[in-house]
Amino acid sequence: MKIGNIQFREKPLFLAPMEDVTDPAFRGMCKRFGADMVYTEFVSADALIRSIKATSQKLTIHDEERPVAIQIYGRDVETMVEAAQIVEAAGPDILDINFGCPVKKVANKGAGAGMLRNIPLMLEITKAVVNAVKIPVTVKTRLGWDNDSKIIVDLAEQLQDCGIQALAIHGRTRAQMYTGEADWTLIGEVKNNQRMKIPIIGNGDICTPESAKEAFEKYGVDAIMIGRATFGHPWIFGEIRDFLDFGSPSMNYDNKEWQVELLKEHVLKSIEWCGNDERKGILHSRRHIAAAPTYKCIPNFRETKIAMLRAESLDELFELMKR
Asked: What percent of the chain has pLDDT above 90?
């Protein structure tokens, strides 16, 4: 599979772009375990052109992450074009447009999945961004706004006609948010549409090696994108890669001591990413600590988990992890 001039191995695995999750510290860990491409947190085009420091910081990428995509979102052509050119100057391999974020503060303002209610503007923005930069442009979107408007099959063709070089589809509508089950049948329908020539990336409910294999074999997608299942679990890429390539794990991914050491490493990398601010780095890691599968086997763990999420120093947090 190729996106632009980037050649991927068979059945590639991508780390989905996620706000407050896919910073350089976490992207690097996922890359280590076999993520074939990683995405930045999504970047507000409006904040980017106004040079908001926290937003501009999201453009930070490192060579060891490559190939890496920077994702932007916005709601008007001029702003998106200017932001795309700023992103291109930061040197990513791919520029991705977010037409899928369902959260109210984004979608209700017409950006992200909100664009699913204004397809002409979505297509206008896409075409303008494609024409404004030289790097490959891709899109991530959903099936439609709600159950009565699952338009993805036709929309995929329209986006392809705008010049994008790959399309990622989350198998839910905006109305579903992250509830219910992802519907992969429509993703498969897009992939099997003879008029589609660009790679189709499937996203939604990939949380086990078995679900990843089914996505490739049953629906025929060119790549899969893994999101929430990576929280506190960057080695999921290794588990899936081994299952796809060999049918069995190449190492003991269930080793709890090893997992704890990885989680501690991630906390330390987060502190470094947060300007060596210990408290801020720990807060930034909490989503991963809370979701890590490492602790799910421990009975009556709730109180300890709460204590871990309240910890504000490394000594306190690491002692709880050790215990």
From this structure: 80
Q: What are the pLDDT digits (tens) for 229-259?
A: 999 999 999 999 999 999 999 999 999 999 9
Q: What 3 state SS string does the chain have?
A: CEECCEECCCCCEEECCCCCCCCHHHHHHHHHCCCCEEECCCEEHHHHHCCCHHHHHCCCCCHHHCCEEEEEECCCHHHHHHHHHHHHHHCCCEEEEEECCCCHHHHCCCCHHHHHHCHHHHHHHHHHHHHHCCCCEEEEEECECCCCCECHHHHHHHHHHCCCCCEEEECCCCCCCCCCCCCHHHHHHHHCCCCCCCCEEEECCCCCHHHHHHHHHHHCCCEEEECHHHCCCCCHHHHHHHHHHHCCCCCCCCCHHHHHHHHHHHHHHHHHHCCCCHHHHHHHHHHHHHHCHHHCCCCCCHHHHHHHHHCCCHHHHHHHHHC
Report the greatest alpha carbon distance in the chain.
58
**310 class by beta-carbon count within 10 Å (0-12 exposed, 13-18 middle, 19+ buried):** exposed
What does DSSP say about strands 94-99 and 43-44: parallel, antiparallel, or unpaired? unpaired
Q: If we measure between CA atoms, which residue out of 314, 306, 318 comes closest to residue 277?
A: 314
Active site residues: 101
Residue-wise pLDDT for 187-245, tens only, equals 999 999 999 999 999 999 999 999 999 999 999 999 999 999 999 999 999 999 999 99
- Retrieve residue 88's tokens: 């291109």
Q: Are strands 2-3 and 6-7 parallel, antiparallel or unpaired?
A: antiparallel
CA dist 253 → 230, 237, 293 (Å): 14, 11, 11
Pairwise CA distance, residues 295 & 96, whole Å = 35
This prediction's pTM: 0.94
Residue 112: pLDDT band (50, 70, 90) is very high
Pair of tokens at residue 26: 């976490």
